Amino acid sequence: MEEDIYKTIAAPGEETLFKEKNSKFFGYAFPVSNEDEVKEILSEIKKHHHQARHWCYAYQLGTEPNIYYRANDDGEPNNSAGMPIYGQIQSFSVTNVLVVSVRYFGGVKLGVGGLISAYRTSAQMALEASQIIEKTIDEHFTLAFGYPDMNKVMRVIKEKNLNIVSQKMELDCQITISTRKKNAPMVLEALEGLYGITVKSV
């Protein structure tokens, strides 16, 4: 896979259900971009499944080399729930994603091996029920220039197919643009070649 592409999910996946010896495991996958979103989603799921016994989850945020993840067993034996869920996030190669498996205990103990297998299957089903998409890792630059240089700047933005993230037109102009990481050096060179314009990485 190209270095400036990562995979994530497009939208929350459908609820899935896996049953093992009377225990029920409801699986969910959500796109997330920060820990606050993770907390909000978890509290909603706990409200929705307030009679469940365990709400186990794992999430991963960021792209190489700045990846952050967490796995939570929520009262199940150590590493029998959170890590098997996280293992599925890794095997689907997705990031910026939260996978939750909610367990209703069915009266029959599954043992650690059974739990690992059940949580792994629940996470796999949740990710299979989600639409996985590719996104590019983008770099952002802020350009500052005077009005007379507007045409030059706009020409480069159009030629290089850059995205305008924000613009501020006051006494002078400020535009923030984004481009794919692999194109960034070339874009930077083109922008820095424009006389009278300051370019800053964001």
TrEMBL record:
InterPro entries in UniProt: Impact (IPR023582), Impact_N (IPR001498), Impact_N_sf (IPR036956), Ribosomal_Su5_D2-typ_SF (IPR020568)
Pfam families for this protein: Impact_N
Domain of life: Bacteria
Stretches assigned to the Impact N-terminal domain: 21-127
Recorded family membership: Belongs to the IMPACT family.
Name of protein: YigZ family protein
Organism: Flavobacterium rhizosphaerae
Record lineage: Bacteria, Pseudomonadati, Bacteroidota, Flavobacteriia, Flavobacteriales
